[in-house]
Amino acid sequence: MAGFLSDLYIKKFINATWMERYGSVLHQETLTLLWSFIVSIYCVGGMIGCLCSGYLTAKYGKKKCLLVNDVVLLVATLHTGFSRRAKSFEMILIGRFLEGIGAGINMNAHVQYAGEISPKKLRGFVNVTSSVFLALGKAVARILGLRDLLGTEDMWNVLLSFSGLLALIQLLFLPFFPESPPYLLLQKGDKAGCLKAMKQLWGEGNYHTEFDDMMKEKAVTKGTKIMNVLEVLKEPSVYPQLSTMLLLLLSLQFCGLSAITFYTSEIFQTANLQESIIPYVSLGVAISELVSIIFCSSIIDRFGRRILLWGGYLLMALILVLLETSLLLGDQFLWMRYCSVVLIFLFIIAYGIGPAGAIASVMNEIFTLSTRSSAFVIGGIVIWLGLTFTGMIFPFAVMLLGPFCFLIFIGVLIISAVLIYLFLPETKGKSTSEITEEFKTRQFKKKRHQTVEKNATEEKTFCTKL
Questions:
Q1: DSSP assignment of 187-216, as one string?
Q2: Cα separations (Å) of 309 from 249, 300, 369, 405, 435?
Q3: Helical H runs in 329-431?
Q4: With contact defined as beta carbons under 8 Å apart, do 63 and 180 qualify?
C-alpha cells in the first residue's frame, strides 16, 4: 500500500463505514481480517493476471495486451478513487483485485515488449527500464505519501488512484508505437511489417544483423508454435534456462531486501532520528534505489550481466555481514547505530546496481519467442508466491531470530553468487539463438564429462576383473 499513514486512514474509513451502516463498532479481529483481504487480494489478482498473460501476449501480441491492461487499471483506479465518496470499502477490494490483475499482466508483457523492440546494442539498457520505472514508482509513491502532499485523511483515495494517470498516458500514446518486430516476423510471418517496425522504432539504417538473427531463430524454431506452460515444463531443452530463471528469481526474493525494509524504521529510530524526519530518510532510500538502477542501465551493456549479478550479490552479502555486526554491537557502541543507517543505503545501492537491473535483462534474453511468454508466466508465479511466502513467514522469522535472520540471507547471497558465476553464460551482445546454443553446449559438456567418468569407471572395473 502507499504508506503507514494511508493504512491507518483506510482502517479508520472501514470502521466509520461499518459504524454508519450497522450502528455498531467493528471488532478488531474483523477489521484486521478485512485489512488482510485488502492487502492480499492484490497478490491474488497478480497471480491470475500472470497466469493469463502468457496466453494473451502469445495470441494478441504485447502491444494490444498492454493497451487492454490499461483499461483494466483505469477501471481499478476508478473504484479506489471513488470508494471514499461512495462510502464503500468493498470498492477498495475490487480496485485492489483489478490492480493486481493489471500488475500481473504488465509485469510480463512490458518486459517482453521492451526487450523485443530494442536493438541488440541497447538491449540491456532497455531491459533495465522495467526495474527503473518500478523504482521510480516506489519513490513517487513515497513522495506523494508525505503528509505535505497526499498522505492525509482527506486525500488517501487520490493517492491510491494515482497509478490510473500513468495507465491513461500509456493508453493515449502506445497506439502510435508498432508491435514488436520479433512477434511480427516469427509469430505472424510478416517480413514487411517487421522491417517497417524496425525502421519506425530505430530510425533509418542498416538492420540486417538483427533481421538475420531473427531469421536464424525462425529457422531453428520452424514449425514450432508458441508453447504453453505445460509444454514448456515438459520440454527438456528448456530446462537449463528455466533453472537459471528460478535461481535468479529465488535469489532476488530471498536476497534480504524484505529484511532491510522490515528493519528500516526500527534502525532509524534507534539512531535517534526524529519521527518527523524518518519518512524523508525512507524517501532517500527509495531515491537511492532509483539512482542506482539508472546507473546500472548505463553500465550493463559495457560490463555485461554476469559480473553485475555475482558481484552485486557478493557485495550485498558483505554489507549484510557489516549490518549484522552493527546491529549486535549497537547497544555497546552508540556510533554503530549511525553505521547501520549508512549500511542500509549501501545495501540498496548495491541491490540497484546489481540484481535489480540485470535479472530482468537476463530473463528476457535466454528464452526464444516460442517459450518466452510461458516462461514469464512461470517466473511470475514464482514472484507472486515468493511475495506471499515472505509476507507470511518473514515476520515469524524475525520474532524467532531477531537480527540473526540476516544470516539466512547472507548464505543465500553467497550461494547464489557462486552458482551464477559457475553456470550463467554471458548474454551481452548475443542473439537469442547464440545464447540457446551456449546453454546446449554447456549441457553437452556436462553430459560428456559424466560419460567419460562412467567409461573410466567401467574400464577400471574391467581391468580389476582381469
A1: IT--HHHHHHHHHHHH-SS--HHHHHHHHH
A2: 12, 10, 24, 23, 17
A3: 335-353, 355-365, 369-401, 406-423
A4: yes
pLDDT digits (tens, 9 = 90+) for 64-120: 999 999 999 999 999 999 998 998 889 999 999 999 999 999 988 888 888 888 887
Predicted pLDDT at 77 = 93
DSSP secondary structure letters along 238-281:
GHHHHHHHHHHHHHHHTSSHHHHHHHHHHHHHHTT--TTTHHHH
Query: What share of the chain has pLDDT > 90, as a percent?
Result: 23
196: pLDDT strictly greater than 50 = yes
Q: Across the chain, what does the average pLDDT equal?
A: 83
Report DSSP state, residue 145: T
238 contacts 371 by C-beta, under 8 angstroms: yes
Total count of residues recorded for the chain: 466
Instruction: Locate 420 and state its grid cell.
Output: 551464477
Residue pair 149/458 in contact (Cβ under 8 Å)? The answer is no
Identity of residue 354: G
- Scan for cell 574400464, then name that residue: 459
Grid cell digits, residue 294: 539508472
Looking at the predicted structure, is the pLDDT value of residue 447 above 90? no
Helix axes 129-144, 355-365, angle to 10 degrees: 140
Instruction: Report the predicted TM-score, pTM, of the whole model to 2 decimal places.
Output: 0.77
Angle (nearest 5°) at CA 88 between 83 and 94: 70
113 neighbors 66 (Cβ within 8 angstroms): yes
Which range has the top average pLDDT, 31-40, 105-114, 169-178?
169-178
Number of neighbouring beta carbons within 10 Å of residue 29: 8
Q: Which residues, at least 6 apart from 138, have a Cβ–Cβ distance to it below 8 Å?
A: 286, 289, 290
CA–CA separation, 308 vs 269, rounded Å? 33
Cα-trace Rg, the chain: 25
